[in-house]
Amino acid sequence: MSNLTLPAVAKSLYYMCKKCEGERYHRVLAHKSSTSAKIECEICKSVKTYTLPKTGSDAPSARRLSGAAGAAAAKKAASSARSHTGNYEIYNSNALGLEATPYSIKGNFKESQKLNHVKFGIGFVIKAYNDKVDVIFSDEVRTLMHNRT
Prior knowledge:
Blueprint: E1 12-17, E2 22-31, E3 36-41, E4 47-51, H1 67-94, E5 101-102, E6 114-117, E7 121-128, E8 132-136, E9 141-145
Parallel strand pairs: 5-6
Antiparallel strand pairs: 1-2, 2-3, 3-4, 6-7, 7-8, 8-9
């Protein structure tokens, strides 16, 4: 029996977006209770409530489905988790000759830049904003601050 917990605020999770009609990364905005959180799609910016799956369920998108549909949704969720690793590997193979820039909150990073974070390791900037960057690491996408003086 596993003890499921909500992702931390500002972390990303992979979840089905009904507006985009696809599985997308969603950023946790706030925890509503110990089992639900308010999340925002990183693509369409729609806000929705995420609820932890019931114990025994394989995937969040499979918790409402049963039979063949549930099995198909669980298989799709497992595939999307592998695709995250695949995306990281694509960035990694494209940047084989590049030197990783050490991460610093004072640094200024651009999209596709390779960086080395003390705690999270090697990552690649997938989206750069004025004061933050979304970085794909081997385990997940994280939002880091940058451009601070």
